[in-house]
TrEMBL record:
Record keywords, A-Z: Pyridoxal phosphate
Domain of life of the organism encoding this protein: Eukaryota
Annotated stretches, region: Disordered: 1-27
InterPro entries registered for this protein in UniProt: Aminotrans_V_dom (IPR000192), PyrdxlP-dep_Trfase (IPR015424), PyrdxlP-dep_Trfase_major (IPR015421)
Domain Aminotransferase class V: 85-276
SUPFAM superfamilies assigned: PLP-dependent transferases (SSF53383)
One Pfam family named in its UniProt record: Aminotran_5
Phylogenetic placement of the source organism: Eukaryota, Viridiplantae, Streptophyta, Embryophyta, Tracheophyta
Record protein name field: Aminotransferase class V domain-containing protein
Length: 449
């Protein structure tokens, strides 16, 4: 790890202190259940928060570290900017580089969220079309279940510049990886019709809604074999909930939020860009004084703002290492527990999971009783609002359009999450709320927003 070029900071008395000097920290013992409850005691006690996937969660100890950085900045902004900010961001980038098994810290940039990372990659693709390096009609391939903001970015930057967009039609419910791989191959073939090329593949590591773990390594290899120019993996939900290894995955670009499953405060994500000639022309969407000095440096300063969420990554590592097995142990236990809770709910409602357990991470799709009458996205939103307002249950609802010829299809699925703060009683509350609606013959048509 590089040392601070400006290691001195000001203490409360205004005296200079060297924060590169090693400090002895007490060795932390494994965290206890009561300590976990204390770390997340700021959560609303009246809500069964089984939706970690949407916004994540941050423990009190990390929030305290963030607040300390905020105060240090406010106490003496000039000293913080000139002496502390860049070295601290470099420390966080170095920690992330080791977490994701990247070759070089220069391959790691810190940005606000995965949506920002997608804009960075897709703007580069758009420029290639606009400047004639890619031919009009060449294709970008992405999953049908790509995140909505990423789809909008593809439209804004690629389609408008003359690129053709091909969506991979994925089945849901899904039973195995081969179903996904087969549809992906078909999309690549469509992209190469009439002599065109596939210039970019956008692949989710874990789709958001419906949530499914995608066989990303296999799809990246297929892209390489088929001559796809660049591969961008949108892994917003990945770090902290599944294995993330840049050498094994082999994509050109990979992004993941650290505030969803890695306990950082909002909003912070990383964008990995594998070193190659194809990844040189990348720029942060906000042009500031560091433009042209490389994406990592550009991203480290986009004007005056609160950078504290980006600085606490080392403190987050300290937090997760208080759990048995560290982050690997956390994600294993979350996976096992969310599958257990999903199967409990499906059994109680006479439904099924949306994918087999091996295609789940820390989130699972659970079929809702057909008698609830979920017949549109609007119905799903109304049911979600009703569960929140009337039962204190926070959970996203997915509407699945029925296929032709289906008899009594399941059209509604709940996406449940499990994080270290969750307890079984929260899932029982969800089960009982749905059972009450069913027993009272309540349908979505009778609900109001």
């Amino acid at each position: 790890m590089a040392s601070d070029p400006h290691p001195f900071d000001l203490n409360e008395n205004g005296d200079a202190t060297n924060h590169n000097q090693p400090t002895k920290k007490p060795k932390l013992s494994l965290i206890t259940p009561s300590q976990i409850r204390s770390e997340f005691s700021h959560h609303d006690p009246l809500t069964a928060r089984i939706n970690n996937g949407s916004f994540g969660s941050c423990p009190k100890s990390v929030l305290a570290a963030q607040h300390d950085y905020q105060l240090k900045y406010l106490r003496q902004p000039d000293a913080f900017y000139f002496n502390r900010l860049k070295p601290s961001i470099l420390r966080s980038r170095t920690v992330i580089k080791d977490l994701i098994n990247a070759d070089d810290v220069d391959e790691v940039s810190i940005v606000d969220n995965a949506t920002t990372a997608a804009s960075i990659v897709l703007q580069q693709t758009g420029r290639a079309f606009a400047e004639g390096r890619f031919d009009k009609g060449d294709a970008a391939v992405m999953l049908h279940y790509a995140y909505g903001a990423v789809k909008m970015s593809v439209q804004a930057y690629v389609t408008r510049a003359g690129g053709r967009v091909i969506e991979v039609q994925l089945p849901f419910p899904v039973t195995c990886n081969d179903e996904i791989i087969s549809e992906f191959r078909k999309a690549l073939e469509r992209g190469k019709l009439d002599g065109h090329k596939v210039r970019l593949a956008v692949i989710d590591h874990i789709t958001s809604m419906p949530c499914v773990v995608i066989p990303v390594k296999e799809l990246v290899k297929i892209c390489r074999d088929e001559g796809v120019d660049q591969i961008f993996v949108d892994a917003a939900h990945a770090i902290g909930s599944t294995n993330v290894n840049m050498k094994e995955i082999g994509a050109d670009f990979y992004t993941s939020n650290l505030h969803k499953w890695f306990f950082c405060p909002p909003a912070v994500a990383f964008l990995y860009c594998r070193k190659s000639d194809k990844t040189l022309d990348l720029h942060h969407p906000v042009v500031s004084h560091e433009y042209g000095n490389g994406l990592a440096i550009e991203s480290a300063w986009i004007g005056t703002r609160d950078y504290s969420a980006q600085l606490v990554v080392p403190e987050v590592v300290e937090f997760v290492n208080r759990f048995e097995g560290g982050i690997e142990g956390i994600r294993t236990r979350n996976h096992e527990k969310v599958v257990e809770m999903g199967e409990m709910l499906a059994k109680a409602w006479g439904t099924n999971l949306g994918s087999p357990p091996e295609m789940c991470s820390s989130m699972v799709m659970v079929g809702l009783p057909a008698c609830l009458g979920i017949s549109s996205d609007s119905d799903g939103f109304k049911l979600r609002t009703h569960l929140r307002d009337c039962f204190g249950v926070e959970v996203p609802i997915y509407y699945r359009a029925p296929k032709d010829g289906e008899i009594n299809p399941l059209t509604g699925y709940a996406r449940i999450s499990h994080q270290v703060y969750n307890v079984v009683e929260e899932y029982y509350r969800f089960r009982d709320a749905v059972n009450k609606l069913v027993n009272n013959r309540v349908t979505c048509a009778a609900l109001s927003c």
